[in-house]
Amino acid sequence: MRFSDLTTGIILFDLSGYQFPSKNWDDFVVTIMGWWLRAIIDLKTGASRKEELYFMDGPYLVTVEKRNTSMCSLFFMERDIAVLKTVDLYPLDDLADSLLSAAQQVYSTCLEHQWQDEDKDVKYLKERIDQLSELYPDLGTECQA
Fold it and tell me: Where are the domains of the chain?
């Protein structure tokens, strides 16, 4: 991960060897993780039943549809139309845990490099980490401020 005007690094979904959008996908991790955590928060709180997890580079996204209080379906898509892979009945808690853990790693890297004061996206990410941690107190590890 490196800091410029936007922090970039490797970000992808890896489900049993299926890597989306691709292995070593490089994108704006701080911004994207903030968006994705916001989406999971909305699913968890019932503010929405369907969220789209976008990447900034390329035409890729993952649509998450909440099936019930604990399960969701994942649709790995290109250009909002081509479904490349579907994972039905995926535990929402597992998705939240994976995203929260990844976001905490990203935030920790920002802290190590003292980027937290340089970028509003880093501050936004920290706020979403704290918010999701409140909703899922047993997930991830507490993020240091």
Answer: 9-135
